[in-house]
Amino acid sequence: MKEEFRFSSRFSFQDGENEFSRILSEYKKKKISYIDLTLSNPTQAGFQYPFEAIRHSFQTNDLITYIPDPQGNELARNTISDYYRSKGVMIDPDDLFLVSSSSEAFSYLFKLFCDAGDSILIPAPGYPLFEFLSVMEGLQTIAYITKKENSWRLKATDLDPKILSKSKLLLIVSPNNPTGSVFGRSDFESVKDILKKYNIPTVIDEVFSDYVYEGESHFTLTDSEIPVITVNGLSKTLGLPGMKLSWILLSGPAPWKKKTKELLELISDTYLSVNTPVQNVLSDLMQWRTMIQTQILKRIQRNRAVLKQIIFEFDTSERIECDLPKAGWYCMIESKDFFPEEKFSLRLLKEKQVYVHAGEMFGFPNTDAAGRIVLSLLTETDVFESGLAKILEFSKEIRLN
Ligand SMILES: Cc1ncc(COP(=O)(O)O)c(C=O)c1O
């Protein structure tokens, strides 16, 4: 008799192992080395962390006494408010809710604003995990498409009123992953009326806000007239994703904020997921922000320089294009040779042992006018350089064959 397993239908999107994972696990099993240009886990990217000091903080702080607070421990929230003050942004620690990750922040916000079956608006190109986070809450996603000619910045014309009227939330990532585009005050002002008209709360994921380069600036957006919620956390701010501490910052009209806090407290109190030790050492950890971020920023600047040199000076074919990213941890390069993107990326992995992300994964429009691949700027620079050289070599080979 056929065995019947009964699971939730939310997993219906899952159709077995993908080809990239299959090849990568085969490489690992057979000890075949490959160049990973997707690595974005900072704790595996060769940075120096203050191990001794962090160990000392955990040894000398109280790890045991449990005083549950659905918003998170007050001292930790004060530290986060100091972080914003150091960037010139004044916030009230009482507007913060601590969570264990940005992903969890989204799951709370989805519970807060949506019912199963509702739709939310997500950016394309954008962070692929939003789709999965939405599926886990029984939600549908509708992509709003930002344009290359607008440097991928959100414009009011990218928001279709018909879609806005049936969506429960608007998600913005600033700086965006993978385009690096920043959603500034003037961009906000240009969409504020339409958001107000459709009464749609906006969530801004600003996890990459400390990684902004020349010619660009980022400012945490808060508003007193319409609901604007910010998500950020230690995974990028301190390059410590394993610490599992992120936060939700609320802004909006006072009565809305009051009700929102009441409901968010209910959700948070149901899980109380943030561990006590990390909350108690947060002020110690934050002291290492400059030390850690400086290394990450230097690595990114070096890789941007390599990118500039290889693409702009050595690629005489002029078939490869790249706009140097103005923010974030990623870059994308573009060429007709990369089309179709997934096929190109798979061949690159199989034939040259170079692993990149295909643009399709982030919702770039898949047209033969331009294929795009996305690389992580966190990769160690010598690896980044040799990987990039192999990509150029491979696209030339493809062209000649
Ligand atoms: C845009 C964006 N938001 C959030 C995250 C993940 O943050 P966390 O580790 O806090 O869940 C990432 C991870 O790369 C990301 O790219």
TrEMBL record:
Superkingdom, taxonomy of origin: Bacteria
Location of the Aminotransferase class I/classII large domain: 35-382
InterPro entries tied to this protein: Aminotransferase_I/II_large, PyrdxlP-dep_Trfase, PyrdxlP-dep_Trfase_major, PyrdxlP-dep_Trfase_small
Entry protein name: Aminotransferase
Record Pfam families: Aminotran_1_2
Entry annotated with the keyword Ribonucleoprotein: no
Gene3D superfamilies according to UniProt: Aspartate Aminotransferase, domain 1, Type I PLP-dependent aspartate aminotransferase-like (Major domain)
UniProt entry keywords in alphabetical sequence: Aminotransferase, Transferase
Gene Ontology terms, MF aspect: pyridoxal phosphate binding; transaminase activity
UniProt keyword Transferase present: yes
SUPFAM superfamilies registered for this protein in UniProt: PLP-dependent transferases
Range of residues in the leader sequence: none
